[in-house]
Amino acid sequence: MVKNKATSESAYISELAIHGIQEKKGNDIVRLDLRNIHSSVTDYFVICNADSSTQVKAIANSIEEEIYKALKQEPWRKEGLEYAEWILLDYIDVVIHVFRTDKREFYGVEDLWGDAEIKSYKSA
């Protein structure tokens, strides 16, 4: 993955996160572009799910590794590591949600941001 000058840092972080998800076979990967939504607190949400808590943790670790390797950045905040049903990695301009499949369906985060531009990605 090559970062060109026209690519914003938040877009690049989201691409690194997606790569980390794909490395661990995350499912139903989407990126919500929230930059044109006035009430948004971040540029992008990246969302995926996995069938087990073990895989949820592995995906979150892979995302952190990819971003740290490229940018030497740690998440500003991490939530949900204890039970790994919904891990949130907050990089300020990019917030990544890694759900266990049943929890993603229950919370429906994408539905809360219906105005966002949504792009889907293939699992690796």
Polypeptide structure, described:
Helix content is 36%, strand content 27%. It is α+β, with helices and mostly antiparallel strands. A six-stranded mixed beta sheet has the order 3-4-5-2-1-6. The radius of gyration is 13 Å and the shape is globular.
Quick summary:
This protein is α+β, with helices and mostly antiparallel strands. The protein has four helices and six strands.
Characteristics of this structure?
124 residues, alpha+beta, 27% strand, 36% helix, globular, disordered N terminus, six-stranded mixed β-sheet
Strand content: 25-35%
Report the order of strands and helices. HEEHEEEHHE
Tell me the radius of gyration.
13 Å
Structural class label = alpha+beta
Low-confidence stretches: 1-7
Number of helices: 4
The gross shape turns out to be: globular
Largest sheet: 6 strands, mixed
In helices, the fraction of residues equals 25-40%
Mean of all residue-level pLDDT scores: 92
Family: Belongs to the Iojap/RsfS family.
Subunit structure: Interacts with ribosomal protein uL14 (rplN).
Pfam families: RsfS (PF02410)
InterPro entries: Iojap/RsfS/C7orf30, NT_sf
Set out the fold topology:
Layout (H helix, E strand, L loop, with lengths): L8 H15 L3 E7 L10 E7 L2 H19 L5 E3 L6 E5 L3 E7 H7 L1 H4 L4 E5 L3
Parallel strand pairs: 2-5
Antiparallel strand pairs: 1-2, 1-6, 3-4, 4-5
Helix pairs in contact: 1-2
Subunit structure: Interacts with ribosomal protein uL14 (rplN).
InterPro entries: Iojap/RsfS/C7orf30, NT_sf
Keywords: Cytoplasm, Repressor, Translation regulation
